[in-house]
């Protein structure tokens, strides 16, 4: 069955005006201006009139804790797994799963199984092998073979630097890890990205600079997240991006984190653009279902809240409605740039040949009316 979405006010992410989109075999087969008539006339086509509502690419989230996270305060502080229902309603159609602090009771096998569960529900899912600590936990015995032989594994992460919960890796260890992931990625046709959890220690992003400076690994092989968690880290992140690296802002937050100096994600995007950071070097991730822990001045755990997948769409709206960022530019932060950094060429754009992952936005408010994933409508607000 072919599906024709008529009269979509399309952001691909470039603003295209009123268009018709023809979907076939999970992908976009054609995009034509509405005034040129509908494609595939005379064929068996299911037609759906979107009546001028905005259509944007499905969101791409580089950091989701499919299997939950937390545990820093004991077993009673473990966060729950992501449910399919929450995922489908969030607007995120491509999710990359990771382990965090706990790679003992949560494993790469758990992560892969959960990824395939969500994929069976209609979403696109990938994973990072490894976790906060080095040497990394893997499924096959090495980072390289995980990336090479397991389709869902596209890189390694969430490796912790500048954080008391990490293994305090040296720049040499980081360079060796990035080399293994990069080479395996080249052999498998994947990015081999090294996704980095950045803590609030004064070293900030310096370990990544040292790894790149002392090796042939480019800065862009690393994608560090939580760059908006403290003012000092934020400023160091802007310098890192100007030096050629990519930076990722976390959209899930708490009142306590903001009161402690965290830069709200939408504000971080606006300030980064004002500072003339290359937009393609900025991504957003939700850190969904991770714990957002609170520690006292002795690094003792005092409480947590879970990250939320829906925060990615919410922050995209704040970028547009509160900070005046053009929708076509803001989409890049929540979809297109992550797809490019992660080596997912079918994602992040609504063009012929790309996957038919898209959001139909509500008229007159920042809300999702429909989510389409791989050519199927998987969520409707009604």
Automatic annotation (TrEMBL):
Chief place where the protein resides:
cytoplasm
Q: Under the GO molecular function aspect, what terms does this record hold?
A: beta-aspartyl-peptidase activity
| Location relative to the cell | Cytoplasm
Q: Does the keyword Metal-binding apply?
A: yes
Keywords noted in UniProt: Hydrolase, Metal-binding, Metalloprotease, Protease, Zinc
Alphabetical list of InterPro entries matching this protein? Amidohydro-rel, Metal-dep_hydrolase_composite, Metal_Hydrolase, Metallo-dep_Hydrolases_sf, Pept_M38_dipep
Q: Where is the Amidohydrolase-related domain?
A: 55-361
Q: Which cofactor does it need?
A: Zn(2+)
Query: Which PANTHER family did the record assign?
Result: COLLAPSIN RESPONSE MEDIATOR PROTEIN (PTHR11647:SF1), HYDRANTOINASE/DIHYDROPYRIMIDINASE FAMILY MEMBER (PTHR11647)
The record's family statement is: Belongs to the peptidase M38 family.
NCBIfam families, per database record: isoAsp_dipep
Q: What does this protein do?
A: Catalyzes the hydrolytic cleavage of a subset of L-isoaspartyl (L-beta-aspartyl) dipeptides. Used to degrade proteins damaged by L-isoaspartyl residues formation.
Q: State the name under which the record lists this protein.
A: Isoaspartyl dipeptidase
Q: What is the lineage of its organism?
A: Bacteria, Pseudomonadati, Pseudomonadota, Gammaproteobacteria, Oceanospirillales
The encoding gene is iadA
